Amino acid sequence: MSSAVISTSAVQGRPFVFDIEDADEACPQPSGAELAEARPPQRAFSTSTFKDARLAGVTPASRLAVRSTPEMVPSGIAAMDALTGGLPRGCLTEICGPASSGRTTLLLAALAAATRRGEFCTVVDASDALDPQSAAAAGVELDRLLWVRCGENSPEHRLEQLLRATDLLLESGGFGLIALDLGDLPQPAARRIPLTTWFRFRRAVEHTPTVLLAIERQSIAGSCSSLLIKLGSQGYRIKESAISQLPVFSHTQLLTELEITAEIVRSRMDRKPVRSAEITFASKTAWAG
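User: That's the sequence. What structure does it adopt?
Assistant: Structure tokens below.
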């Protein structure tokens, strides 16, 4: 008979002595078959099962709700409507271009079309550049137009006034068109508008019947705008002096017409990519008839 000494950590210095043979009889070891019967049944688990469980809550693209196309309203210029389909409601539209590129022409045409529909409009003028007589000559019903003048202070102060007024106007609602005229602000000042502000404007106008226009020299709203139109001047016509015998001086010439080009730079109206398209239309002066 053999014996063994086993020490436990619970009782230090007090070994237990027992016979190995007796221990084998008291604690018999189970056989392999008994161990197999005692184990719980194992379920097969594969990588594909894990992927299916992880993707169970993901909606397939084919079942996603189709994004509704916003309602389009006329811009007041037939050639522009043929290019863009009009101006989208509930969206931010950017109209950018250098000086004498037709920005004011498109703005006044959109205001005239909206007021003729019986809608109330607002122009938030950052540089106090709107001419009421020119607006009336373009067909704008001034009784339906709110003109927010930001004064003649520093560009930073005028920009702050424009942003505060826009927040109040979007929150109040009830306007068919809200135009932010940033065209005469210095470009560095206009670019100080953070992208989060444009995102807030876009969310505020979403699901409303308001057309939000931003008139700028260059695009500054980034991906927050649903439609980006770039304008440019292609040529002009000048009415010369009626007395052909006299030399023609620059101060005796009258500008009668501008040829304006318009191009869609970005459009989120549908899921199709933007086609490279460009149009040309004329803008006549009031004295040209």
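DSSP finds nine helices and twelve strands in the chain.
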